[in-house]
Amino acid sequence: MSSFQKLSGGTLRCLSMTSRPSLILALLKLCICLLLAESSSKCFIRDDKAYCGQKNLYTVPVLPPDITYLDLTLNYISEIHEKSFYGLEALQILKIQQQEGRLVLRNNAFSGLSNLALLDLAYNEDLQVDPGAFNGLSNLQVLNLTECKLNGSILSGDYLRPLVSLEQLSLPGNKIPKIRPASFFVNMSKLHIVDISRTWMNSFCEEDLFHFQGKHFTLLKLHDIKMTDMTPYWSGWNKCGNPFRNMSMTVLDLSKNSFSVDVAVLFFKAIRGTKIHTLILNHSGSMGKGVWYNNLKDPDQNTFMDLSESARYRLDLSNGRIFALRNSVFRHMPDLEKI
């Protein structure tokens, strides 16, 4: 198909229509380049890294397709959906910390990001996560959900099911009253670091952590989880069982919990036989009588008796109220290397 252009003297010149698609394609490329330039100008880009924190962004910007690192911290992004990261399939590290206002993760929010290894969503208060938000993240190794006001369903529901390669899960500062991982955690063979600190639990027992059985944790962090029911007078000690049955830990962090000597004796009896390389009980304000609390006890030679088959090499009791260590207080722990 052709068109004609009239020249001087009445001569007509034939113009091929094939030139028009080329023009349209060139204009399209120009528009894309202008969009990239406009979006990228809001971010600092170095090599394959895009730093877009605190740029007053309301949506994920258009970026070069070779970006592997993207930081979107402290913006105004309210929703992540399946088209949000279109064209950014090379992403390996993604940080979306602390958005102003509520952040909603829609189903398939990270569609196409099969190369993503680290996802940091920390400090997004009232984070809303749709059930299929993490679909497609089959290679994700690290997930940080610190202080997002999530409840126990983040563990007991199906939200994390797609994360078959997960190695590290951080959930401190949420509202998780019970540690009850769903059955699919049994198949998360690579998971070895779990942090569920700074929450309010009445207790945690063998049936709660059942689907963690069979795992070796390099770090299981249960710092400051209150354990309000687990007093010396709690009627549930006998039926609670061993919360760490069939597990082992390089480091078990139970710091800043109310471990009086009497509670410690009952708890150590419950977890007897669990292999723990390092046990952290620092900032246990109820262990030891200190200078002023004569109604509380310092540890004696029977306090750590049931750790003889458990905590092997290191025991951290620092920043507590222990006034004096009696003779032979650690006699049941002959392999202890550091206190």
From TrEMBL:
<protein>
    <recommendedName>
        <fullName>Toll-like receptor 5</fullName>
    </recommendedName>
</protein>
<keyword id="KW-0732">Signal</keyword>
<dbReference type="InterPro" id="IPR050541">
    <property type="entry name" value="LRR_TM_domain-containing"/>
</dbReference>
<keyword id="KW-0433">Leucine-rich repeat</keyword>
<dbReference type="InterPro" id="IPR001611">
    <property type="entry name" value="Leu-rich_rpt"/>
</dbReference>
<keyword id="KW-0677">Repeat</keyword>
<dbReference type="InterPro" id="IPR032675">
    <property type="entry name" value="LRR_dom_sf"/>
</dbReference>
<dbReference type="Pfam" id="PF13855">
    <property type="entry name" value="LRR_8"/>
</dbReference>
<feature type="signal peptide">
    <location>
        <begin position="1"/>
        <end position="39"/>
    </location>
</feature>
<dbReference type="GO" id="GO:0005886">
    <property type="term" value="C:plasma membrane"/>
</dbReference>
